[in-house]
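Usage

Read records sequentially. Each one opens with the input sequence:
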Amino acid sequence: MKGFFITLFVLLFVVCCVYAQTARVVPLSPADQKEALTKWAALEKAQTDWNTFQARIQTDYLTVSGDDPDKGNLGREEGFNDGVTCSGCKGSDWKYYRKGFESGFEFDKSFQFIVPKPAPVSPQPYQWFQAAPAINLNGTSAQR
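and closes with the structure output:
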């Protein structure tokens, strides 16, 4: 009986291996393969350049000093990553995000302006209980 289960297991393993390797592939010509690799490398470089550009725009236009009246709530110590606390820092040592831009920014369609990203709205639990007004039996809305 033990030999039967071992044989069944081995047979099942072999069948799985055979059917797992049935993915269809179409080989590319060497010229198309080279072009695909070149375009993929260019796309990765463009994405890196775009991320670097966005970081520079955020630093140049959306980071203000602690004394600025347009400062928002979130701040960071100059030269450090977000979330690093500074003991004994004065207000001018901190850099703040411009008010309204705490969630980031987007470019408008013409790329002439940057606009704030909408802040994500967290769902409120049990919100659906308050959605419908209470109705009296005579069909009018009840005052709460």
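Summary fields computed downstream for this record:
- Residues 52 and 94 are 22 Å apart (CA to CA).
- The first strand starts at residue 63 and ends at 65.
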